[in-house]
Amino acid sequence: MHDIKTKSSDSKAIDYRIALVGNPNVGKSVLFGLLTGKYVTVSNYPGTTVEVSRGMYVGSNNTVEVVDTPGANSLISHSEDERVARDILLRDEEKKIIQIMDSKNIHRGLLITTQLAEMGLPVSISLNMWDETLDRGMTIDTDKLQNTLGVTLTKTIATQKYGIGALRNSINSVNVPKIRIDYGEVIEGGIKRIEELLPENLTVRKRAIAIMLLSYDEDLEKTLKFDKQVISRIHKVRGDVQRQYGHSLSYIIIRKRSEYVDDLLEGIVSYGGKEEKAGEISRNAFFFFIMPLISFFIGLKVMDLLMFMIANYVVASGQTALILKLVGGGVSVGFYSFYLFSREYKTGRKITSILGALTMHPVLAWPMLLVVLWGIYKIVGEFGAGDCVDFIENKIFGSSLEMSGGFDFKVFIPFTNIEYVFTHVNFQGINYYLGLLCQKFMSADNFFFELFLGKNAGIIQVGVTYSIAIILPIVGFFFMSFGLMEDSGYLPRLAVMLNRFFKILGLNGKAVLPMVLGLGCDTMATLTTRILDTKKERIISTLLLALAVPCSAQLGVIAGILGRVSGLHLTIYFVVIFSQMLLVGYLSSKILKGTRSDFLMEMPPFRRPKLTNILLKTYYRTKWFLKEAVPLFVLGTFILFILTKLGILTYIESAASPVVKHFLGLPVETTKGFILGFLRRDYAVVSIFKALEEKAGNLTIDPNQLIVALVVITLFVPCLANFFVMIKERGSKTAFLMFAFIIPFSFLVGGVLRYILQWLSI
Amino acid sequence: MADELQIEEMLEYIWMLEEDHGKAESTLMDDKFGNEVANKCLNEMVGKKLISFSDSRIVFTDNGKNLAELIIRRHRIAERLLNDVLEMSGDEFERGACQFEHFVNEEIIASICTLLGHPAVCPHGKKIPPGDCCTSARRNLGPVINPLSEIRSGEKVKVVYVTTKSHASLDRLSAIGVIPGLKLTIHQKHPSIIIQYGETQLALDKDVAENIFVRKV
């Protein structure tokens, strides 16, 4: 899983290493970036760092290495993250520790300091997020604490680069914290007895290891490779000590530490200062202008979406529709304002904390969620997948044989019809010029011309163009919206909202991260399933991602196509996919052995996201995505080309036609689309749509055929890249089992849907 | 006539054997209480129709089972009280609980059970047989200690004890600071429970919250 091997091939000898340690979501990754100049994904979501990043300390001439560890609340392993963090600290190498604390949660940070002290590791402490601490009217007497601990404390605000210089200087004066906890006669006796059993060659102080062993860190016994005899003796000591207590020893030990930290902070932390309040003007603007406006819009939009769903049945004329929408808006303003004025107006809290509470409100948060989703759809599905894709595909890349006709370079004023055309750009598309160039040497029906620039399966004309023209804009805009949700702190709030729903699926709210990310790219999402705590949860989420979560590329195309055909059918599509997700999730949670972990998640504060971080993150994620996707696209297109050339495609089509034609009731031509589904899901959607369009000729497409095809293709196997990642993460046996389940299942659902639609005569 | 206390001790022991091993062998009774005492008591218990023998196994009669259940219940409720509320540790509380079970009557146990918020497991994680007070809806005495899941939002409470099934959950809770003595506010209850303490907001399942017992402050 997590390889934490050191590269032995390092040409220069490393003097020492700096390990960044701290609770989840305190800013380790930001500091890592500042210390090494290397970017790692940073977000306002606990547990983002799943892989250990390493980089060279800036200015150290490549002799000091910095290691970023996953966040841990304790160095006794309860989770993968904590295990990784602990193992780094136990490794045999010269190291210095920078412990990063969220200074407003200093108590929890110091709990880790006590463990570092027990290990005997030299530490320098960064009191990060100092600004948020000040905002809350909290004061920390750092001089006094510094004297007590004998360790340098540096106030920092990593996102603003405040205090980083001082932190860098402090690395030269690291010390083992002066902390010595007396765990009481009984436990201390146990510690002594275990210490005597431990071998001499340990990398940290024996006392620390003994305490960890008393705390039931079973995994540590394996890591340290003790022989069986030693282990059974240790267990005996632990049993003896445990008998003296009613609670588990680990619990008693944490309580002792916690009491110690309480005493330590006595007289150091106080809440005397004035809490920073939002300025009078911006506060009033928020209550009297911004929120009413936003809530009016929310009501309006919710009404609008409702009407869109049932548009074919309730014919609301322009005027009634307008009145209904306005009423919706008015009601919404009433509700939101009532809540805000009765609960929040007088408290004087900051606007971000009010928003933080509002986005978790049992009732008021739901319409907001709906509008957020709609907004993402607008940005990703319509602007990204629609306008941007059209432009890049048709105008920038174009066709190898036909001129694209160029485009106008213009500006327009939104909501009016006024446009200013500056000039007409006479650019006929990259592919067209390539085609022209190639036709100097060969004719358009030459084998190589078809291989690279052919209309149906040319590697450049289809493969490269598709991946860059279609996928790039969609995925880019999705990652941007996702980054916004992540950094504002909306994502963990979504976890709170959806926890109950995920529980039905055998998961918990934590699964919101992979699932929402899956709407962007299932491949990437499958990688992040490792943040989930149990194996069962990881398997279920991998299966659901592969089965029922359409990626943004696919979703954009589907919503675009279906939305144009009928709102009702778009709704049916979502209902079907959603119900299958529920069904399969529920059943697999019952069938699979193993446990579901409890939902326990810290809510980071709602923050104003930093644009630069979001853009940077989008850039790195998109870059990663392209690196993965483009080769697969090219490979896929190449396979398709061979299949067409050898006539295998027609063979498969005729073999699959009974199912496609008789069971699903679709034209045989769509079979090609399903085969394409193996390569790219969105690609398949377009291909099926084109096949249906050609079949329909001048008539309009039968929406029932379309929806059956789209449901099948959504549930159908994930793309090749996703499948490879499934094998990598879950092992080939599990991956192939899922594969074998998904294919027949998707056709079954499609067929059943066809007959239900017929029966209901929709 | 055998001692009343001795019989109660034996009923308790038979119950625990059945709980742990599914059956109670009479030879085990000899090991624990000594041959002579065991024989005498067992005979008397058979006479009182509390138990019967089938082969070498001891089987409860309905009467015996009810009585044993009451004793176990008293013992384990007492453990909860001594361990969590009075914070006695180790042997001290075990000895206390052993004495306790013999002299309190049902009414007192019901009151303690209610005070403690009708706990379902003892500090060792064994099941406490529910009494009438746990099953009936009538609650004459408002509990002082409640599971977190039953507290209304907006209330300030103090954690008294935590009883989760697994070490892992308990440790995770304590590592983020949820330990006895912690003062917290219930921020909201739906769609998930959110508690606030210090500068931390923590979201948790109802399942977890049911295991955190708190007292209003």
How would you characterize this protein structure?
The complex is a heterodimer of chains A (762) and B (217). Among the domains of chain A are: 16-173, 3-Layer(aba) Sandwich (Rossmann fold); 185-270, Orthogonal Bundle (Helix Hairpins), CATH 1.10.287.1770; 277-358, no CATH class; 632-760, no CATH class. Chain A is 61% helix and 7% strand. Chain A is built from 31 helices and 11 strands. In chain A, the strands form 3 sheets. In chain A, strands 2-3-1-4-5-7 form a 6-stranded mixed sheet, sandwiched between helices. In chain A, helix 12 (280-309) packs across helix 15, helix 18 runs antiparallel to helix 25 and helix 23 packs parallel to helix 28. Chain B is an alpha+beta fold. Helices cover 48% and strands 19% of the residues of chain B. Chain B is built from 9 helices and 9 strands. In chain B, the strands form 2 sheets. A 6-stranded antiparallel sheet of chain B has the order 4-9-5-6-7-8. A 3-stranded antiparallel sheet of chain B has the order 1-3-2. In chain B, strand 2 (51-54) and strand 3 form a beta hairpin.
Which outline of chain A best applies?
globular
Stretches with pLDDT under 50, minimum 5 residues of chain B: none
> What count of structural domains of chain B?
3
Q: What radius of gyration of chain B results from the CA coordinates?
A: 20 Å
Major beta-sheet overview of chain B: 6 strands, antiparallel
Give the amount of beta strand of chain B, in percent. 15-25%
CATH topology value of one domain in chain A: Rossmann fold
What would the principal axes of the Cα set say about the shape of chain B?
Answer: elongated
